């Protein structure tokens, strides 16, 4: 109804008097949001996305022209009335989630009353929909039901109401003077009444709907409904239901005499059924088939009546396919599911004027969902013809067209079908590229899908192999996975390969070969350091062969130190085994989470172990070295028959994650404690210092008694910074009253079940220990029984401000005075052969054939000898000790023999420290 001049003037006067409402004064947002599942929703808010309304009604009360109400998924248990209006070209829109149609579920009635220019899409309305006294209302993609009642009612003078692509489960009734209602591409079903009733609704258009009914007329047009139209519909007339509310006879299409004037019907399909009384009732006359109706009324000339529903609908050779009138009023471009109009190449186009629109709500289509493409030469040099083909899962492959974009900037081309019907195109690339070929397949309805394949276009030329080889170093302390020391990364990526590589062979120079290598990157772990010649042979698909070689030096990498709380790794006494002379034993080093409460890196390069030999059946010595390598001519622990001896050992990790231990002769028990490890890329640097005495119970504190502990300040004193993480010591026990052991550890509350020094009465014994720094820069000393004096000499510290990294080496002998002359008491011997640039070294120093008790002091060549000891000499004993010392000029260290007696000195290198 148009507003009167009086109403307009009155409204203008109110606006002048009261002012523009605040909501209208400001720029209204384009979108209001409703989401009852959002914890921030409120019906008193603004409806912004961050604070949506909880109910649809709240948005319906304020929405204005041009605004969209976006409704989130959820169950909305409310009745909604829309009584506000948009403007021409600026409708009010209510929309469910576009990606999840019908997830917004309204359980009570949706009513349009006095509204205009409104669009609703994507809702599930199980309380039914009613449109009254409203104009220009579009209902699209709805799921509507209302129990046993009509799902949709349009009435009370509604005009221009359009219902499309919706599932209407329950009768639809158009009534009450409504005009211009249009129903298109809907699925309409009712098992208790006529699926569609039009009464007193002139100009109603029903086009391309699928209607299923069990009662009365499948479509009934009555009352003053002149000028209506029924086109392209599919009417399923099923068997009569016991739930029918009327006993009226079954009819396909019924048009009352009062509605017949100007009403048209054509291109409909009615499925016959024994329950059907007649196909048509028109102006109170019955017509058994379309021919009879057309002869009498001029309507239904292109209607189809089938004996049954068999073979009708979305099936092959259905009479609904490509047989409708595409010019009929109410035709829309997409079907119920959103598919475009498609021409089935297997069906004749019998629609009006040769058109191929289908009858009913669903358009037959090819179900295209995927396109494939293939490249005959995906890897080829410039100038090679590169053929591309295409295919798809379309049911109508001959109706598909394909275009290929070769990814090099040239215009896309259309693929042509060869004699076998395969779409193909050939392209010649003018320059090298790593291009992506994109083929797009389009069906007759304009639906398109694409597929991509990589094309490698190489420079033209001969096959030329190239090889690069670099150390592969770990980058973290990740306990999962590992990078072993002596691992080399070999790359053939720089090879010139104009054609695909068929096979690559890599000869590593250590007797191993990788054949049929698929990747351009390969990792190889060597069992021992050394000089190796790596050779790569590449063969391509054209039969060409090329070889490249490279000499590589494989060695251990510089590493930082990771201190751990010590733990026992092996004790053959508890395992019920013994170490036999001449037979190496493999000791698996802990990695990852194999040891409770000790998460360790999988990529350690060298381990620091405290190794103890006890219960030896004869005088013997123990060697420890990386597994998989030859046993070196060095020793780590010397022990007398029946005795116990220990030493700290730094040893590289073998390629299999193990180290080997072997007695020279006899039999003994082996105890191995894990102290820490070195690894490239992580850990702390080291700063060696001239040996500095930090504790001596002979001059302070008295002997340490059995079961007692003594705390010693080690960081923040004697030049060792307060933030040092670990300190290296030479630990000496003297005056022991019993066979005992000593433990040096960080946390006084967590004494480990390990040992650092094994004591014997009447013998001065020493061993080097690396101990993490505990609370307030201290460490704790403990002995299990008897009493003993302890002397603690610091030889270096680890921390973030230290200056040197450690390079482990396979144990090798630097000096042996048994071949050069025995140092006399008070004499100094010089050890050479340490690497240039070394600022510190880890040595295994052994004293043997001593004529009297005394000690050795090891220090940097050219510096002042400190007043400390590195190991204690005992006549008749061979005594080893791990010694960490600064290195003097020329890679030299000095070894001074005290005045106790002459002794032979054997010096083995375990590793060295360099700055940087």
Helical content class: under 10%
Shape type? elongated
* Chain oligomer state: single chain
Largest beta-sheet characterization:
10 strands, parallel
Tell me the distance between the termini. Answer: 91 Å
The spatial strand order of the largest sheet comes to 1-2-5-8-11-14-17-20-23-26
- Counting DSSP H or I runs of 4 or more residues, the number of helices is 5
Helix/sheet category: mainly beta
CA-based gyration radius: 47 Å
Strand tally is 74
Pick out the low-confidence regions.
1-26
How much strand?
35-45%
Mean pLDDT: 93
Question: What's this model, at a glance?
Answer:
By secondary structure, the protein is mainly beta. It contains five helices and 74 strands.
Protein topology:
Blueprint: H1 5-18, H2 22-25, E1 31-34, H3 56-60, E2 68-71, E3 74-76, E4 80-82, E5 92-95, E6 104-106, E7 110-113, E8 116-121, E9 123-125, E10 129-132, E11 135-140, E12 143-145, E13 152-155, E14 159-164, E15 167-169, E16 172-174, E17 182-184, E18 187-190, E19 196-199, E20 205-207, E21 210-213, E22 217-222, E23 229-231, E24 234-237, E25 251-255, E26 264-266, E27 269-271, E28 278-282, E29 285-287, H4 290-297, E30 304-306, E31 371-375, E32 379-381, E33 385-392, E34 401-405, E35 413-414, E36 416-417, E37 423-428, E38 433-442, E39 448-458, E40 468-471, E41 487-491, E42 501-507, E43 513-514, E44 521-525, E45 530-540, E46 545-554, E47 560-571, H5 572-575, E48 579-580, E49 585-588, E50 592-595, E51 598-600, E52 606-614, E53 620-626, E54 637-639, E55 644-652, E56 658-663, E57 667-679, E58 685-696, E59 704-705, E60 709-713, E61 726-734, E62 740-745, E63 757-759, E64 765-772, E65 778-783, E66 787-799, E67 804-816, E68 828-831, E69 838-848, E70 854-860, E71 871-873, E72 879-886, E73 893-897, E74 904-915
Parallel strand pairs: 1-2, 2-5, 3-6, 4-7, 5-8, 6-9, 7-10, 8-11, 9-12, 10-13, 11-14, 12-15, 13-16, 14-17, 15-18, 16-19, 17-20, 18-21, 19-22, 20-23, 21-24, 22-25, 23-26, 24-27, 25-28, 27-30, 32-39
Antiparallel strand pairs: 28-29, 31-33, 33-37, 34-35, 34-38, 36-37, 38-39, 40-41, 41-44, 42-43, 42-45, 45-46, 47-57, 48-57, 49-56, 50-51, 52-55, 52-57, 53-54, 53-56, 58-66, 59-66, 60-65, 61-64, 61-66, 62-63, 62-65, 67-74, 68-73, 69-72, 69-74, 70-71, 70-73
């Amino acid at each position: 109804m148009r507003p009167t001049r009086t109403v307009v003037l009155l409204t203008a006067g109110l606006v002048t008097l009261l002012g523009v409402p605040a909501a209208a004064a400001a720029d209204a947002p384009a979108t209001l949001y409703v989401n009852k599942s959002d914890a921030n929703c409120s019906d008193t808010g603004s409806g912004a996305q961050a604070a949506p309304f909880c109910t649809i009604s709240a948005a319906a009360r304020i929405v204005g022209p041009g605004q969209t109400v976006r409704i989130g998924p959820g169950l909305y248990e409310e009745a909604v009335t829309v009584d506000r209006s948009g403007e021409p070209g600026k409708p009010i829109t209510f929309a469910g989630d576009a990606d999840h149609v019908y997830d917004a579920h309204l359980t009570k009635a949706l009513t349009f009353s006095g509204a205009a220019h409104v669009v609703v899409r994507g809702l599930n309305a199980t309380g039914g929909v009613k449109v009254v006294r409203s104009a220009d209302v579009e209902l699209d993609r709805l799921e509507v039901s209302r129990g046993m009642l009509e799902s949709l009612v349009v009435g009370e003078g509604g005009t221009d109401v359009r219902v499309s692509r919706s599932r209407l489960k329950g009768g639809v009734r158009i009534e009450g003077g409504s005009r211009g209602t249009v129903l298109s591409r809907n699925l309409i079903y009712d098992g208790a009444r006529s699926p569609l009733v039009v009464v007193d609704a002139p100009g109603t258009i029903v086009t391309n709907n699928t209607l299923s009914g069990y009662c009365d007329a499948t479509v009934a047009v009555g009352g003053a409904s002149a000028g209506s139209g029924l086109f392209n519909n599919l009417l399923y007339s099923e068997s009569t239901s016991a739930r029918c509310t009327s006993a009226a006879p079954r009819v396909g299409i019924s048009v009352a005499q009062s509605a017949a004037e100007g009403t048209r019907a054509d291109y409909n399909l009615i499925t016959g059924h024994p329950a059907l009384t007649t196909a048509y009732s028109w102006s109170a006359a019955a017509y058994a088939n379309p021919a009879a109706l057309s002869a009498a009324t001029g309507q239904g000339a292109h209607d189809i009546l089938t004996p049954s529903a068999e073979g009708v609908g979305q099936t092959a050779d259905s009479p609904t396919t490509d047989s409708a009138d595409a010019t009929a009023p109410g035709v829309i471009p997409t079907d119920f599911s959103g598919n475009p109009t498609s021409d089935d190449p297997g069906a004749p186009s019998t629609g009006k004027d040769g058109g191929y629109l289908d009858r009913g709500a669903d358009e037959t289509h090819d179900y295209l969902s995927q396109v494939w493409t293939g490249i005959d030469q995906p890897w080829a040099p410039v100038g090679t013809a590169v053929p591309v083909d295409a295919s798809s899962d379309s049911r109508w492959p001959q109706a598909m067209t394909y275009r290929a974009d070769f990814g090099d900037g040239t215009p896309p081309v259309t693929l042509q079908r060869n004699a076998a019907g395969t779409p193909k195109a050939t392209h010649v690339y003018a320059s090298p590229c790593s291009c992506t070929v994109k083929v797009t397949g389009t069906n007759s309805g304009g639906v398109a899908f694409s597929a991509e394949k990589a094309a490698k276009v190489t420079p033209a030329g001969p096959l030329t192999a190239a090889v690069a080889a670099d150390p592969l170093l770990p980058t973290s302390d990740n306990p999962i996975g590992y990078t072993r020391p002596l691992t080399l990364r070999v790359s053939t990526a720089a090879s010139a390969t104009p054609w695909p590589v068929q096979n690559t062979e890599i000869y590593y120079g250590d007797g191993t070969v990788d054949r049929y290598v698929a990747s351009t990157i390969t990792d190889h772990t060597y069992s021992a350091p050394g000089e190796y010649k790596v050779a790569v042979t590449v063969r391509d698909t054209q039969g060409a062969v090329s070889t490249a070689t490279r000499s590589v030096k494989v060695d251990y990498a510089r590493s930082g130190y990771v201190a751990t709380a010590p733990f026992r790794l092996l004790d053959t006494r508890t395992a019920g085994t013994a170490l036999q002379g001449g037979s190496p034993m493999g000791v698996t080093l802990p990695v990852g989470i194999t040891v409770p409460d000790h998460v360790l890196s999988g990529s350690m390069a060298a381990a620091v172990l405290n190794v103890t030999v006890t219960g030896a059946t004869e005088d013997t010595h123990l060697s420890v070295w990386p597994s998989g390598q030859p046993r070196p001519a060095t020793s780590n622990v010397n022990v007398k028959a029946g005795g116990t001896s220990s030493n700290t050992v730094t040893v590289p990790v073998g390629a299999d994650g193990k180290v080997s231990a072997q007695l020279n002769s006899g039999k003994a028990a082996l105890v191995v404690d894990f102290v820490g490890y070195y690894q490239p890329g992580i850990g702390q640097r080291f700063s060696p210092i001239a040996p500095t005495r930090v504790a001596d119970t002979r001059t302070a504190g008295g002997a340490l008694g059995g079961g007692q502990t003594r705390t010693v300040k080690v960081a923040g004193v004697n030049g060792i910074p307060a933030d040092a993480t670990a300190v290296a010591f030479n630990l000496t026990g003297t005056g022991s009253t019993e066979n005992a052991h000593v433990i040096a550890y960080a946390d006084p509350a967590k004494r480990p079940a390990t040992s650092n020094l094994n004591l014997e009465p009447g013998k001065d014994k020493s061993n080097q220990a690396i101990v993490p720094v505990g609370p307030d820069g201290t460490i704790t000393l403990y002995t299990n029984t008897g009493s003993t004096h302890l002397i603690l000499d610091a030889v270096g510290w680890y921390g973030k401000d230290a200056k040197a990294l450690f390079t482990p080496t396979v144990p090798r002998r630097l000096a042996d005075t048994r071949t050069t002359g025995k140092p006399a008491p008070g004499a100094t011997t010089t050890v050479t052969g340490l690497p240039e640039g070394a600022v510190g070294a880890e040595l295994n120093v052994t004293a043997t054939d001593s004529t009297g008790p005394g000690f050795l002091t090891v220090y940097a060549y050219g510096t002042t000898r400190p007043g400390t000891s590195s190991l204690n000499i005992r006549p008749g004993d061979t005594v080893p000790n791990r010694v960490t010392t600064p290195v003097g000029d020329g890679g030299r260290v000095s070894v001074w023999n005290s005045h106790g007696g002459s002794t032979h000195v054997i010096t083995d290198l375990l590793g060295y420290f360099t700055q940087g």
